Amino acid sequence: MSIQLQPEVQPVQQTQVQPLWTRKHLLGLEDLSADEINRILDDAERFRLQTQDGRKLSVLSGTTTANLFFENSTRTRTSFSLAARRLGGDVIDFSASTSSVSKGETIIDTAKTIEAMHAHAIVVRHHTPGTPHLLSQNLRCSVINAGDGPHEHPTQGLLDIFTIRQHRQKVAGLTVALVGDIAHSRTARSNIWGLKKLGAHVIVCGPATLVSKKWETLGVEVSYSLDEILPRCDVLNLLRIQFERQQTRPFPSVREYVHLYAMNMARLRRAKDDILIMAPGPINRGVELTPDVADGPHSVILDQVTNGLYIRMAVLHLCIGAGKRGEA
Ligand code: CP
């Protein structure tokens, strides 16, 4: 197999009539329709074209977005901040480790305190599944889920799908494999909901301790052999082994995991010529994939990071900006 350079990324044809957006919150992709997902992707593409040269817009002027992160983040937190600022909004950056949470303040009281400073959106990441849902029932402002434990990470799912659509001009009919720590992955759940709704065939693949047969109830194929599924895959999304969420080690050694599941150059030679290599990040270099694959011509990992900015612009605009009124 010869490795081919990625073709130049083409703008995606947008749908002509935009479905009306009626949601105040973005809590997950499980609840969204295909039309709603496409609306976010189309708006993100419009923001990409309008701001990729660094231009700022003013569509969020007069709004405040608060980042309420109880878990660490590099990509999600900074891109929500930058997205709000690029669209003319203000940002409150809250860090749980230096806040009054350490004095015993509850998460609802903390969020209400931030809301009282006239926040229009609270972007929350928390280790407990359902935290964004709880806040949405107790606040007047919009709540956006930036990752709730192993449950959902909707903007990650959206930016992954946006990146696939950007490079392949479609999602329907593609075979997308999510490989690795499926059990603890909020990214896996959001990808599955979104990809299935847009017509992709989804495979979850990894060690049996991290990939239960129960995933088949979500309409996905379950595999324990990367080598068996590899020739069929259009996209591999390599999920990080989340050692911090595991009570016991799910496989005898990292070396064994690498032998069976790491994407390396030998495996790449057996894959489709135009396979897309993705990873939500952060990556464990040498575990989920080798550095030559991570930095090679099939990798779109940094495109995912860039596209996160446009997806978060679209989500903020729809939930707290003019988008929620159906305007452009
Ligand atoms: N992919 C992702 O959510 O990255 P961060 O944890 O750096 O935000």
Number of beta-strand segments: 9
For this structure, the CATH topology of the largest domain is Rossmann fold
How many separate structural domains? 2
CATH homologous superfamily designation of the largest domain: Aspartate/ornithine carbamoyltransferase
The whole-number mean of residue pLDDT values reads 92
CATH class of the largest domain: Alpha Beta
In helices, the fraction of residues equals 25-40%
* Uncertain regions spanning at least 5 consecutive residues: 1-8
Strand coverage percent: 5-15%
Instruction: Going across the biggest sheet, name each strand in turn.
Output: 7-6-5-8-9
Bound ligands: phosphoric acid mono(formamide)ester
Helix and strand element order: HEHEHEHEHEHEEHEHHEHH
- What is the architecture of the largest domain at the second tier of CATH? 3-Layer(aba) Sandwich
